[in-house]
Amino acid sequence: MRARLLDLAIAIQQVPAPTFEEGVRADFVQSKFVEEGLLDISKDELGNVYGRLAGNGSGAPLVAVAHLDTVFPNGTSLEVREEGDRIYGPGLGDNSIGVAALIELVRLVRQRNIELGGDLWLVADVGEEGLGDLRGMRKVVKRFGAKVQGYLIVEGLALGHVYHRAIGVRRYRVTARTAGGHSWSDFGQPSAIHELARLVTQIAALRVPVTPRTTLNVGVIAGGTTVNTLAAEAWFELDLRSENADTLAVLTEQAEKLIAAANRPGVSVEATLIGQRPAGEIAIQHPFIQLGLRCLEQQGLGGNLTSGSTDANIPLSQGIPAVVLGVTTGGGAHTKHEYIQTEPIEQGMNQLVCFVSKAWG
Predict the structure, then answer these.
(1) Helix/strand/coil (H, E, C) string of 183-228?
(2) pLDDT per residue over 270-295, tens digit each?
(3) Which of 118, 314, 316, 335 is the most exposed place for a label (fewest CB within 10 A)?
(4) Model-level pTM?
(5) CATH pick for 2-166+279-358 out of 3.30.499.10, 3.20.20.240, 3.40.30.10, 3.40.630.10
C-alpha cells in the first residue's frame, strides 16, 4: 500500500499545479480515475475532476475531496529527495499525497470487499490555495448541495487531527496612490510606500483576542520604481482570520476604518476585497466528528480536535456536515523544504477506509 501510494503521490507532485493553472494535473488525475474504472467521470468548467464509486444505494452519497493546486509558481524546482523516514518535495504533502489518497482509497475499498452504504464520489478540486478563494469547492458544493451524507476533506499532512471548525478569512489588496516625485527635490511630498508603511504599523498594532483565536497578517507588499523616487503607487495584501464570524467582522471593521482614515489630500488609499472564506463549524458530538476520532483511535492515534481554513469552510458555512482528515504527518508546508513522513501512511489510509466504510452508520 505505502509504496504504491508514494509512487502515485510523487507522480502527481511532479506535475506543476499553481492555483489557476491546475489543468495538466487535473488531466493526469482524470486519467487515473479512468484507469480505476470509476463511474460518471467528468471535469467541470473550473477544472474540478469527478468520479463515482458505486455503493449499495441505501444512503445519500459521501463526497471525498482533495485539492489539486499548490502555492508554488511555475518554474519551481520539484525535486524529490528521501532522507530516512522523510521524503522532501514542494507540494508533496500539501496536497499531492491527499489527491493520491483518493485513488488509493478506491483500491483499498475494493480489495477489502467493503460494501458502502451509498455512492462515494471522489473529487480533485481546484482553487483551494491563496487567491483561489475556494472557488473549486464552491462549485462542488453547488453541484451536490445538501443532498449528500456529507463531505470528507483529505489534507495530506493532517493525520492525527480532526477539523471540525472552519476559520473565517477576509483578504484585501490595499493600494496607495500619490503624485510621486524626486526623493531630493520633492522631499516632504507624500510617498505611497511611506503611507502604507504607517498604515501597516497601525494595523499590526490592533489588539486581537486569543479566544476565539484571531490573527492578522500583511503577507505581500510592493510598489515604487527606483530608490531615489517618491513612490507614486504601492500596495499590500492583508489577511484577517478568526474562528468566530462576529469577531472577524469586528476586526474587519477596525482595519477598514484605519484604511479609510489614511486618505488625505494628495494621498488616495483604497481596499479591494480579494478573498473571503466563510466561517462555520460542526458540533463535536456530530457522528462525523465522533467517527473520525474513533477511526484514529483504532489506529493507535490520538485525535486532536482543531480548526483550519480548508475546503471544508464551504459546506460547514452552509450547515452541511464536513470533516477534514489527513493521510500522514510532515512539515514545511508552503515552503521548498516541505516533507512527508512515510511511516504513518498505512495508519492514515486505514483511518480513511474506516471512515468511508462506516460513514453511513
Answers:
(1) CCCCECECCHHHHHHHHHHHHHCCCCCCCCCEEEEEEEEEECCCCC
(2) 999 999 999 999 999 999 999 999 99
(3) 335
(4) 0.91
(5) 3.40.630.10
